[in-house]
Amino acid sequence: MDNRKFTEQELIRREKYKNLVEKQQDPFEITEFERNATLKELRTKYENFSKEKLTNLESKEVIKTAGRIKQFREAGKKGAFINIQDQDSDIQLYVRMDEIGEDNFNQFRELDLGDIIGVEGMIMKTDHGELSIRVSKYTLLSKALKPLPDKYSGIQNIEEKYRRRYVDLIMNPEVKKTFQNRSKIIRALQGFLDGQGYMEVETPILQSVKGGAAAKPFKSYFNALDREFTLRVATELHLKRLIVGGFEGVYEIGRLFRNEGMSARHNPEFTTLELYVAFKGLKFLMDITEKIMKECNKAVNNSGKIKYGEHEIDLSKPFKRVHMVDAIKQVVGIDFWQNMSLDEAIKIAKEHNIHVEKHHFSVGHIINLFFEEFVESTIIEPTFIYGQPVEISPLSKRNKENPRFTDRFELFIIGREYANAYAELNNPIEQYNRFEEQLKEIEFGNDEAGEMDIDFIEALEYGLPPTAGLGLGIDRMVMLLTNSDSIKDVLLFPQMKPRE
């Protein structure tokens, strides 16, 4: 027994459904409806025909199609115009009593907005030139027991828009287009990487050791093994094991899980690309990242110049490449190329109102804080920021010329990070020492630090060739290329707070 409280409109619709059942016309018992054309195919085939040409077609095709009722208006007492939509298009139906019979027509008038129907009929154009189907038969395929929102105001509550995405998709073709474009972007990304000869793989989501990124994990418990596991925060360490195993180019497009806050830019469950290629270095990574961004843009936009919010950027131009220390010097005027003690760096940080943790911070951490505080938001055009300090890059190689920094970059566009890449650290002895430094950070309260992964160390001891690794945020890239304000706009089902 359903004890929910229903609106007056919902009660009326349930009564209509009850009447259908009593007449043995239950739409939910119908298992299929064979279409011979989608609405987009009909428009593509007949849109440019004149009314006269459609009327005089020698062999008229009987159209069988289906869709959801979006508009309904009566044309006198014996006729009606309705609009239906399917996945890609919509079309007008013209229904007359003398075509389908009085009883059927009276039942037809009892249909509601949101009902899904199948129709048969002939293609035509009205006097106003509107492509339409003159219906000779209809079948109710599904009864909408809840009414759709008003077509002009839509879903007013933004939380409900994301929570009831299925209604949002029905009401807003632009929303549906965003997710169709998301699929095109991912297909373009896969096609490009496959074309380079790289292999798509899958790695475990449940992991016994947290690693691959500085992030707080979601924890779970594996009953069969009687031990705690985490949902992966990165795919990195397993993918690099595959390079050790002899594959020379592997990638994964998959979900990551980080137990952090939600905002317009962050969802705790998100999608990334991670790519690892043997025998390649930092310049290769910059070049291929730039190509990926441009190829994905081509899949959904007609120009390299795209708008995002109030900004226009040009993805067709070469991306800028700036060392992190030079970027800080340009914006703030502080020269971190100069060797300085931790006390000197802390003093400079305090002068600029930057909070420094007492325990696990170093000069490298402070350099990164200066970049995040003063530089990141000033970057508009696509820019590779490279040379991150070694202290914040536990899995990347040191730079030969200046071992304080690493062969690593992050891609920034309009103040947001889109990619993180580096020449992978393949020295198992140094990797062990870096993991130990991470363990010290955990002791001092950094719950984002990585854990010791002995199996990964042992994999490196078998020999990892020089390897280039890239991580790219799919959701943020889709936001950029579809001009979407919030990450929730590009996730079909984002995480939401419970209804109050």
UniProtKB/TrEMBL annotation:
Cofactor(s) essential for the protein: Mg(2+)
Matches recorded under Pfam families: tRNA-synt_2 (PF00152), tRNA_anti-codon (PF01336)
Sites where the protein binds Mg(2+) 1: E410, E417
UniProt binding sites for Mg(2+) 2: E417
Domain of life: Bacteria
PROSITE patterns: AA_TRNA_LIGASE_II
Enzyme category, top tier: ligase
Assigned keywords, A-Z: Aminoacyl-tRNA synthetase, ATP-binding, Cytoplasm, Ligase, Magnesium, Metal-binding, Nucleotide-binding, Protein biosynthesis
Main location: cytoplasm
InterPro entries in the record: Aa-tRNA-synt_II, aa-tRNA-synth_II, aa-tRNA-synth_II/BPL/LPL, Lys-tRNA-ligase_II, Lys-tRNA-ligase_II_N, Lys-tRNA-synth_II_C, NA-bd_OB-fold, NA-bd_OB_tRNA
GO cellular component: cytosol
Entries under CDD domains matching the protein: LysRS_core, LysRS_N
GO biological process per UniProt: lysyl-tRNA aminoacylation
Subcellular location: Cytoplasm
EC number(s) reported in the record: 6.1.1.6
Catalytic activity: tRNA(Lys) + L-lysine + ATP = L-lysyl-tRNA(Lys) + AMP + diphosphate
Co-factor binding comment: Binds 3 Mg(2+) ions per subunit.
Subunit structure: Homodimer.
Protein name, as recorded: Lysine--tRNA ligase
Gene (name only): lysS
